[in-house]
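Reopening this one. Same input as before:
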Amino acid sequence: MSGFEIVSREDFSAVTYLLEFRHPLMAKAARPGQFVIVMAHEHGERIPLTIADFDRDKGTITLVIQAVGKTTREMQQACRVGTQLHAVVGPMGIPSRIGDAKKVVCVGGGLGVAPIYPQARAHKQSGAHVIGVLGFRNQALMFWEDKFRACCDELIVCTDDGSAGLKGLVTEGIRQAMARHADIDEVVAIGPPIMMKGCAEATRAAGIRTMVSLNPVMVDGTGMCGGCRVKVGDRIRFACVDGPDFDGHQVDFDDLMVRLGRYKPAEQAALLNWEASCRLRGAADAAASTPHAARP
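Same output, byte for byte:
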């Protein structure tokens, strides 16, 4: 099956946007914590994106994407309601463990706010007391507050500049939740590696189980390429088939961040080349649309 219609799009900011596409079989199979690999067009790059929501009745999958590289910028321009994604593989990865915790803190930072939502909803549906902790740079970048209030018993919002909620990082929200509740069973955190590392350190001394979702560079999504390998304890694991959820107290975040940094020059070069080709196409289109001067 090829071609999956985009039925909804929402732009949260200049760089963050939501795509909802139709895929009834995937929506039926999807579980919290899983991801998909997307190709926007036939010659496009394959990129992993964590599922931000799924609706089995509508038969749709929702992704929230940040336009930071060549492919995500290209998708931001091209993906509109009525267009199609060329290929989507999934749901992939081991679903998050739901139902064990009676009191759980679900932490999302930045773009990680979107994929933590299915977990918060699932924990609530399983009967847990759910405390949401959401982190944004400022109030203007906030999204889905209403969705989280609907599935969380408590919600703590943190902003870097203090324009909404607590002033500070999500770790401040975790500490506040720990101060209020001595019986937290689990913390689940999704966001940038440095943020997830901070969350794991915030709970380490208290011995609270802390799960993080890793989304490193992937190619095939089957464990064959080895691009997504991570150090967890004394073992090498593959995020695509062994994760994406891992024990945050065991993840070697420093190694993960070094590995991610190795790809930045290639990613930047690809983005610059794409931007240059966009400018050339724009100039060519402008020239083609300009009437030629009449011959004397």
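So the earlier flakiness isn't reproducible anymore. For the record, The radius of gyration is 21 Å.
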